[in-house]
Each structure stands twice: as C-alpha cells, then as structure tokens.
Amino acid sequence: MCLSAEQRLDNPTLLIIGYGNTLRRDDGVGVEAARWAGEHLARPGVRIFESHQLVPEMAEDIACADRVVFIDASVAGLGVGKGRAPGEVVHEVIKPADESDPSLGHHITPQVLLAMASAIFGGCPEAELFTVVGSDFDHGSGLSEPVARGLSRLQELLRAHTLTERSCP
Amino acid sequence: MAQQIKIEPVTRIEGHAKITLTLGDDGKVNDAMFHVTQFRGFEKFVEGRPLTEMPSITARICGICPVSHLMASAKACDDLLSVEIPPTAVKLRRLMNLAQFTQSHALSFFHLSSPDLLLGFDADPATRNVVGLVRKHPQRAADGIKLRKFGQRAIELLGGKRVHPAWLVPGGVNKALDPAAREEILAGIPQALDIARRTVEFFKTIVDQFHHEIDCFGNFPTMFAGLVAPHDLWEHYDGTFRFIDSDGIDVVELNEPREYQRYIGEAVEEFSYLKSPYYKPMGYPDGIYRVGPLARVNICKGFGTPLADEELAEFRQRAGNPALSSFHFHWARLLETLHAVEQIQRILEAPDILDKQVRARARPNRLEGVGISEAPRGSLIHHYKIDEDGRMVWANLIIATGHNNLSINRGVLQVAKEYVDGTKLKEGMLNRVEAVVRTYDPCLSCSTHALGQMAMKIELTDREGQVLDVLKR
Amino acid sequence: MNMSTLATPQVITLQIDGQDVSARADESILDVARENGIDIPTMCHLDGLDPVGACRLCLIEIEGTPKLLPACMTYAEEGMRVLTDSPRLQKYRRTILELIFAERNHVCSVCVSNGHCELQNMAVKLGVSHVTVAYRYPKMEVDSSHDRFRLDHNRCILCTRCVRVCDAVEGAHTKDVMGRGVLSAIIHDLNEPWGDSDTCTSCGKCVHVCPTGALVEKGTASSEMAKRTQFLPYLTRMREHHS
What we know:
The complex is a heterotrimer of chains A (169), B (473) and C (243). With 169 residues, chain A is an alpha/beta fold. Chain A has helices at 5-10, 29-40, 58-64, 110-121, 145-163, and strands at residues 14-19, 46-51, 67-75, 89-94, 126-134. Chain A has 5 helices and 5 strands, in the order αβαβαββαβα. In chain A, strand 1, helix 2 and strand 2 (46-51) form a beta-alpha-beta unit. Chain B is α+β, with helices and mostly antiparallel strands. Chain B has helices at 42-45, 54-59, 66-81, 87-119, 130-136, 138-159, 179-206, 211-216, 260-263, 293-299, 306-319, 329-348, 400-403, 405-419, 427-439, and strands spanning 3-8, 17-23, 29-36, 168-169, 172-173, 223-229, 233-234, 240-244, 250-253, 264-267, 276-279, 289-290, 368-375, 378-386, 392-398, 457-462, 467-472. The two termini of chain B are 26 Å apart. Chain C is α+β, with helices and mostly antiparallel strands and 243 residues long. Chain C folds into 2 domains: 3-85, Ubiquitin-like (UB roll); 103-242, Alpha-Beta Plaits (2-Layer Sandwich). Chain C has 6 helices and 10 strands; from the N terminus they run ββαβββααββαββαβα. Chain C is globular and about 55 Å long.
C-alpha cells in the first residue's frame, strides 16, 4: 500500500534492492550489499530487498518509493564492465526503459522494472544503479578479492548516499 | 546440401535451451531438435543421504518451482514411511500447490507469453516484450503482477519463506496454519478471482485471431497423462495417474504411483540432457504423450468449482474435447488459475484447516517409494529407494518438461515446416518456433545460471558444421 | 566430597586485554575471561565437560610467549598479560573456521541443524562469509544404523564433545575417535555400526551436546534439529553435590 502524498512529504521513502546469485560468487555482491544495508542503513523510511533476481512484483514497491537504489554485479569486459577492472563500482542515474531487448528472456533489468512501475502503477521514483564489476562467476559462494574490496567502497558510497537528505516535491 | 538453423538461446522460457533446425536439400525443414543443455546430476548426489533430507535437497533443483519438487518428494517419502498423513496436512499441502499454480501460471501467461499474444507474433521485436506490453496494456500487466503476488504471498505465509520453504516434510507439514495467515490469504481472494475471471474472458476474445497458430502449434493427436481425482475431477496433488488417448478414451489408470515404470519408459537422445519419457506399451517414439495444463484439463470431466466449470464447458466447445493443439495450453492455464483461486478459498474455509495435527510420525516402512504430484508444467514423479537404515541408495526423477519432450520436438518441427523457409530468416517465423516451445512453459531449471545477458543467435550451418550465415538480434 | 578438607585456592592477579582481573590458580584463562565478561569464542568447549583444546578457536596471546595457547587449557598465573582479540588472533580464528568448513561437507541449506548450528553461528559471529581454502569434498558415510539417532560424518568437526559426555557423564564410553589427521573419525565401540553397539544406552546426550548436524535425531527434516544442552551443567552439579 502506497503512502499518501502528504505522508510521503513527511517521510520520503528509499528502497534499496540488491540482487544476484550468491551461489555464483561475485554475482552475489548485490545481495551482500543489501544484507549489509539491512544492518547498517535501516531506519524508518528505508526499505531493503535482497533477491536472487529482479521480479515483476517489485514494480509496485518501486512505484511507491521516492528513491530507488539498485545494486547489481557485472562481468568485467561486458556491458557496464567493459573496459573496467574487477572491483570497480559504477554509479549511474537510470530512467525507465523505452524498450527491452527481447532476447533477455525472464531476466528483467532495473530500467524495465522502472518502466513497469511508471506505466502500471504511475510511480516514477528517482533511480540509480550501482554496479560492481566482478571477475569470478563460477559456482560457489563468497566474493573474489577485488570484489570484496569493491563491496567496502560500495558500502561507503551507500552510506554517504543514503544519508543525503533530499527534498521531495 | 543439408543446412542447419540454430536458435540459441530460446528466450522467455524458464532456463536455457537451443533449437536446431535441419534443412533438406530443397531448403525446407526436415528435422527439428530441442536441446536441453544443462546437466545437474541430482539423482546421483543424493545417494547416501537420509531420506528426511530429500524434500529440501530436491527443492534445490529449481528456484522457479521449488514447491513442486517439495510436493513430489514429500509424497515419495510418505510412501517410504507408509503413512497416511493427517487430513489437515493434506489440505495445507494442496493449498501451497494451488498457490504455486497461481503464481507460476500468472508468470507464464502475463510475462512470458503475453508479448506474443497481445502484441502479435509479427510485431517489431523492439516492442514485443514486457516494456511494450506494459505500455500498451498496463491493466493486463498489473493484473499479472497482482495475481503472481497473491500466489507468492500465499506460499510465503504458508511456508515462512518464498523460495525454498522447509515446511513440507515427510508425513505432512511442520507447522499448522496461522489464523492471521489464513485471514490475509482470504482477503486477497476477491481481487485474485476478479483478475482470473477477466483474464479468461479477455483471452476468449482474442483466441480466434490465432487460428493459424492453433492449427500448427503442436496440433496433432497424442495421448495425455496426468493425475485425476475420484469422479473424474481435475487433480493436482493426489488421485490416480491416468493416460487417455487422443479421442479422450481412458487407456490406463495406475492403481498406485509405484506402477509408473510399467507404463513409462525413458529414452535418452544424444542431442539433449533431457530424457524422453514415452508410453511403454506403444514403444519409442510412438508412445508420445503430453502432460501439463492441457493434459489435465483434457483428462478430467470437470473442476468441481462453479466458475471454472462454466469456463471449461466453453473451452470444450470451442477448443475440442480433447483439445489437441498445444496452443491451447495457454487457455487451459487460465482455466486452472481460475479454479486454483476458487479452490484456495474453499480449502481455507474448511472447518479443520487450523487443526494442529499436521504431521504423521513414522520410520521408514518400505524400501521403495514413489510420489506423483502435478507441477504447474505437468506431472512430476519422484522415485526413491532406501536401505534399511533410511539412507538413499537410488533416485529417479521424471520432470514435467521431460514428459513433454517428444511433443515439444514434434511441435517445433510442425511450426518450422509451416513458417521457416531456409532461404529467408524472418524474425516472425523464428519467434513462432520459440513460441511453440513456450506454450509448454518448459522449466529447464536454471536456478544457478549466472548473468542472463545472452543475445539471441541464429546459425545457418551446412552438414559439416561450417557456418554459412549468422543472425543476431 | 567434604568441602572443608580442601585448601583455600591461591588467589592471583593478571591482566586480560588490559583489564586487571583476579583468579584462582586452578582456573583456566577462559573461565576467568568469561567471569569478567570477556568473550573468547569456543567450539569444543562445553560447560560441564572437561576441556580438551581440540578446536583451537580459543587461542590467546600471552606476553613473553611466542606460541599461541588455548585459553581453555591454560591456567592463570600471577602477573600474566593476556590478549584475547588481537588482529592476529582474529585472523587465525577465521582461518580455523574456514579449515573446518573445507574439511568435510557442511551443506547448511539442507542440513537438519540449519539455523540451530553452533558452527554456523560462529561463522556469522566471526564474519566468515566465505571459505578461501579449497574444499576437500571427502566421501563420508552416514551411520543411520541406530534406532533413534544418526551420525553424519559429513557434518562432524571432531570436537569430541560426544566422546566426553558419553564417557564422563553417561559412563558408557561407547564413542571414541579412530584414525589420525584428516582420517580421524568418531567410532562406536570397536568401530561397529552404532546400532550394533552393546555399550550404547541410547541416552541421547551425545546428540544434544553435538554443536552441528553430525549427531541428530532421526525423522527430523531440514532445519528442525534444535539441540538442548542446558541439562549438562545441572547434571554435573547435582552429581557433585550427591557424591
């Protein structure tokens, strides 16, 4: 259930979604970050989800938030990870997708979720995506050395970021 | 010269697969192969483990439908213990399975198949996807999300956890239903029922546009198999396992799950890790049969709930009895969703639903046990053998998508013959080849796949494997 | 036992983590630390059983001694300066836990003790989120021959709590350890299946002192095996009073 506009003014809500597969080593960095956030950043107005993947029903929660922070992992040399070294943390402001790649299958991107949140539930929060570039996506748990360091940097960024008070329209 | 077209991966199905089309000298498709390229080895590594761990181990086969494996596994364990589980536990297990049907069918219809059905098979692939769908049909997309959430939430409330609940145990369930959880699920019923009803209504208005697809999307006579309840009612958890032929005549009914090996053989093909089960008396590959929503609906005489039965009557009239086109898996899925919501309400209103007696305790009393339940995608068979101390010595699992393997292959061939012309590789044609696979909503169990960022790739190769042409989206 | 015949123990003073504490000479550093609210992690230690120093998690540093010593087996001495939580010790403790996890097949997600496991809790407490050494994946047996209990060697960390409780408290000495190094394993009597043991009284104490899912009650499914260890200190104390 969404808060009324008045309630939201008093209490702007932040949603943090960390996702990935913790059984595929560095892919789990988003979930690790969300767990950390649950312990260190939890306060009224902050909701934190950890999930193995983005799922359509998150669209409603996203539409209800004022700000959304996604945390994901990326393979070095591919996509966001292109030309970047493992452990680097990439920050982007993201907008709802205009289109999605049909070949992605059941894999949903943050941009697609934002598009769903806005088209279906009429909510368009400010959104950003932190991506940690990883190197080891093999079976197993635990993060590689550079990504573990990246996680610490990400934690600092998240702490600084989420403490910033933003005025809400 | 024979040529091959490969479509890899097949998108918008659960998991990853690859399709190879082999072209004859005339440039027409003369063979089709649906490859499942994952190998998991669960049957091997459970050896030596205590049987009580089986439900939670096999639930890990899949992060998409763990509930289904929990059901079949718990039932196989009940069989090993030779117990009759408390009636309330039966109801609670049914409740969870129906919630799983609801959420899984919602995902299949609204998110995986709707882009094709609502935007058209020939729509520009740039918009024929979830984003295109939510823009053009925001209300339908919202329905899909809400219905899925209803099912997911019910599973979470019952099992205490959404993905791998450890609630189902040999002998029943490990916790009685919390009255507050009952209230919360009941409160969601009216909306879920509305959505299920209007979705069937809507589907009926568009289904006739697809007469061409209905004709060639796996439209052929086969047997159908699945569970059926006493009085020939639709079933998903218990009941008996029945085969019917393509005229709807009963062929055989298993007296008990342990008889399955008398009727089901498993062939192994070199091109796929997925085994191909077949109806033994007919031999391989003539013993082709289908399972899943279409099969269950064809096998039963009715659902036993008013709204679903009304819709079933219309379905029979318009789609045939039995309905033979795999395209009608979609419609059958919507009927089952409607029934699932009705039935969830009925079970929650049962007077003994909050009873605390939900688990039968026993030691292993047999050395071999079989559990059959219906997953959203079709019949799931778990067959275990244990030693006298209750340790697993052997396991065999036949998954829903396995039963449908032969039919999927034949369906792909049928569509490819109709739509694929070796001299032209058009997006719409290839999408139909994939779409026929998607009607079965196959789950290839990809819970451990890493990053899903793989582009669709089509390779045209000659007999020696020389790549002649490559198309990428 | 007649208390009046005991000599008054000598009281000594020492420093633990910079804190001045007093102790009796017959107290271990672990006892003294805990009396003073200083937590030292342990796995094989259990109140009511004699210490053995098997797990090495309670290692401490003592000024002037290059060796690390187990707090449970080291006695307080006058003027000792003890460190219980130095970065070096933290590193060793994490490594010890990682080695325990890597040595056998500790698959938490499907384990009957998931959520009630002392090893799992310790990993959380010490921040061991992953294992950096290579897993051994040994092929281990599950002994399900006992009527009510099961021994899963895959989950055993060889803390020997079961061996000690069986010997010292129950008095049966059914359990013992056989083999050396990584081949060490808990056995019953002369390495017979548990169910064939003539000495086992089926009291179940070993099951409830086991910190992991190695010793469990049969019929429990994933996450259902919660252990009850409260009985032990009471039992020990009652026997002391009555003998």
